[in-house]
Each structure stands twice: as C-alpha cells, then as structure tokens.
Amino acid sequence: MQRTLSIIKPDAVKKNLIGKIVARFEEEGLRIAAMRKVHLSKREAEGFYAVHAERPFFGELTDFMSSGPAVVMVLEGDNAILRNREIMGATNPAEAAEGTLRKLYADSIGENAVHGSDAPETAAVEIDYFFRATELN
Ligand code: CMP
Fold first, then answer.
1. What's the pTM value of the predicted model, to 2 decimals?
2. What is the phi/psi pair of residue 80, to 5°?
C-alpha cells in the first residue's frame, strides 16, 4: 500500500472538473485518504514547488498555482505513485496518451489540470506539506 499527493490544479477546478477527476481515481481503484480545497498564496505555491525554484518557468508556475482554488488529495493504493502518474499522462498534454486526465482536460504544459508526486521521497514531503498524520484515514 502506497500514498501519493494529488492536486487538482486551478484550471481544472475553474472548469468544474473536481467530481470527474475524483471519480476517475476511484474508478481506477485508488482510495481518497484525505482531501481539501485550498487557495494557495504565492508563497505557499513557491514553498510547494521549491525544487523547481531555479527553473525558468517557476514564476509562471507559482502565479498559476496561486491564481484560484485547487484541491489537494492523498491517494492510496497498490503502487499509487506510478498508477496516479499513468492516469494523469505526460506533463505536456500534447504528449499525453489518449484517455489520460491531461489529454482529456489540460490545455498546456503550464496549465495541466493535475499534479502527482513523482517518487516515494517526494510523496512523503508533499503529503506532509498539506496534511497532518491525523487527517489521513
Ligand atoms: P507538475 O507535475 O505540477 O510539476 C511541475 C510543473 O511545472 C509541471 O507539472 C508543469 O505544470 C510545470 N512545467 C513544467 N515544464 C514547464 C514549462 N516548460 N513551462 C511551464 N510550466 C512547466
């Protein structure tokens, strides 16, 4: 059993896609262990994406992530990190496989509908950024 952090990003929330995306995770056998709607400040977005601080798109990324409400979730299941990444599809929706969330719902590499942790170490850090242990159940 593994846990991963998932974010429904502001573009997908704006398009009223929360229900469809959550339903997809559940249909694929992932369980929602925790979930909250948040509106990140610019500083909170910068903290979350600190590993990308030196990237040229950091300003654009953190402006976008703080531009409106998002949904943060912990998904749980066998191989949850990889399963979530398969369900999301490639970071760039132009390269995402048919049927993936990014192919279905994302407009661009910057506004790409969902985020998912990429490894066990980052999943632990990212889950801890948003949730206390007692909120996971
Ligand atoms: P995410 O999985 O949330 O992790 C980092 C994010 O940076 C990524 O999704 C993209 O939305 C964003 N990103 C990656 N590359 C670019 C880029 N070239 N231009 C803008 N945003 C990017």
1. 0.98
2. -60, -35
CA of 135 to the centre of ligand 1 (A): 28
Distance of CA 55 to the CA centre of its chain: 19
Name the amino acid, one letter, at 32. I
Sheet with 31-38, edge to edge strand ranges: 31-38, 70-77, 2-8, 114-116
Would you call 115 a catalytic residue per the annotation? yes
**55 CA from centroid of ligand 1 (Å):** 10
Please enumerate in sequence order all residues whose Cβ is within 8 A of that of 67, keeping only pairs 6 or more positions apart, or say none. 10
pLDDT tens string, the chain, 137 residues long: the values are 999 999 999 999 999 999 999 999 999 999 999 999 999 999 999 999 999 999 999 999 999 999 999 999 999 999 999 999 999 999 999 999 999 999 999 999 999 999 999 999 999 999 999 999 999 99
Q: Which of 102, 115, 117, 126 is catalytic?
A: 115
Checking DSSP bridges between strand 2-8 and strand 31-38, what pairing results, if any? unpaired
